[in-house]
């Protein structure tokens, strides 16, 4: 059996992801004072922070596992165990996201974080051209007047379903609006497949896809094609019933304050 050799901290460029994770955990453990988590300072502490055994107890984990994690060993932790560590260490939102990214796990709390901050909602109204904000399932949370005027069959006052994917395949008004609809619809499905993979098992995501497979033969064929594309900007054409053919350049952004949401803006081409 080969003896475990810890990574050399003097060569940070050679550190593995596990080693970086271990150093991150140790640094945050050592900076967390016992009083902050309701523990007595005690005697003979080598550092002012928590001991490994104390962190393990707070997180409900084995002290051996905490030790191995800090040593950079390839220990596979579940998302639930990582969440316990994040809570025990009092990690901030950014720190928690960094922890899960290092561990290659999906944060179970992320699926619950779907609210749109007031500043993000206000930005939609502040944009001159058509703009809208999508949630994880690509339902519109907010849109401005220009978007309501443009997107007949989806965001106009007469439409009831605000989900972009469902409207693209089930709304005759939106299908007539979108230039080269078969190509754009297929592209949208391949983009959604790439977007949704991390949340494919979420009940709302599964219900959306399964419902469209049952309701739209075109969506079913596009979904079963297994095509995957990144969501990109570019030229978009619309055959508006009142204003004729319109072209825009699309820009898609992910707000830093709400990484589960998508902000889309259309600028005159």
Q: Briefly, what is this?
A:
The protein has 269 residues and is of the alpha+beta class. The protein has helices at 17-30, 52-59, 63-70, 79-88, 93-103, 118-126, 145-150, 164-170, 172-177, 181-196, 203-215, 217-224, and strands at 131-134, 140-143, 234-240, 244-253, 262-268.
Counted up, domains total: 2
Q: What global shape is seen?
A: elongated
Q: Helix amount, in percent?
A: 40-55%
Please tell me the CATH architecture of the largest domain by its name.
2-Layer Sandwich
Q: Tell me about the largest β-sheet.
A: 5 strands, antiparallel
The CATH class of the largest domain, by name, is Alpha Beta
- String of helices and strands: HHHHHHEEHHHHHHEEE
On the 0 to 100 scale, the average pLDDT is: 86
Uncertain residue segments: none
Order of the strands making up the biggest sheet: 2-1-5-4-3
What gap, in angstroms, lies between the N and C termini? Answer: 64 Å
Quickly give the structural class: alpha+beta
Report strand %.
5-15%
Rg is 24 Å
Question: How would you describe this protein?
Answer:
The chain is built from twelve helices and five strands. It is α+β, with helices and mostly antiparallel strands. It folds into two domains: 12-112, 434 Repressor (Amino-terminal Domain); 118-268, 2-Layer Sandwich (Beta-Lactamase), CATH 3.30.450.180. The chain has a five-stranded antiparallel beta sheet with strand order 2-1-5-4-3. Keywords: DNA-binding.
Would you spell out the secondary-structure blueprint of this structure?
Layout: H1 17-30, H2 52-59, H3 63-70, H4 79-88, H5 93-103, H6 118-126, E1 131-134, E2 140-143, H7 145-150, H8 164-170, H9 172-177, H10 181-196, H11 203-215, H12 217-224, E3 234-240, E4 244-253, E5 262-268
Helix pairs in contact: 2-3, 2-4, 4-5, 11-12
């Amino acid at each position: 059996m080969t003896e475990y050799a810890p990574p050399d901290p003097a060569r940070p460029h050679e550190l593995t992801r596990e080693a970086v994770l271990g150093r991150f955990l140790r640094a945050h453990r050592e900076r967390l004072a016992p009083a902050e988590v309701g523990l007595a300072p005690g005697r003979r502490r080598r550092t002012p922070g928590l001991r490994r055994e104390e962190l393990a107890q707070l997180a409900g984990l084995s002290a051996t596992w905490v030790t191995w994690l800090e040593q950079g060993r390839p220990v596979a932790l579940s998302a639930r165990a990582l969440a316990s560590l994040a809570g025990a260490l009092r990690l901030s939102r950014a720190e928690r996201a960094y922890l899960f990214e290092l561990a290659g796990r999906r944060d179970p709390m992320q699926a619950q974080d779907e609210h749109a901050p007031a500043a993000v909602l206000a930005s939609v109204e502040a944009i001159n051209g058509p703009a809208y904000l999508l949630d994880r399932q690509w339902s519109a949370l907010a849109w401005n007047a220009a978007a309501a005027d443009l997107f007949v069959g989806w965001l106009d006052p007469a439409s009831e379903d605000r989900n972009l994917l469902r409207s693209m395949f089930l709304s005759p008004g939106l299908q007539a609006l979108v230039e080269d609809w078969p190509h754009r619809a297929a592209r949208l499905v391949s983009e959604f497949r790439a977007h949704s993979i991390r949340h494919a098992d979420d009940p709302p995501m599964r219900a959306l896809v399964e419902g469209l497979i049952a309701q739209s033969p075109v969506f079913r064929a596009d979904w079963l094609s297994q095509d995957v594309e990144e969501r990109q900007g570019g030229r978009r054409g619309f055959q508006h019933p009142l204003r004729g053919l319109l072209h825009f350049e699309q820009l898609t952004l992910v707000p830093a304050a709400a990484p589960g949401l998508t902000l889309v803006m259309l600028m005159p081409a």
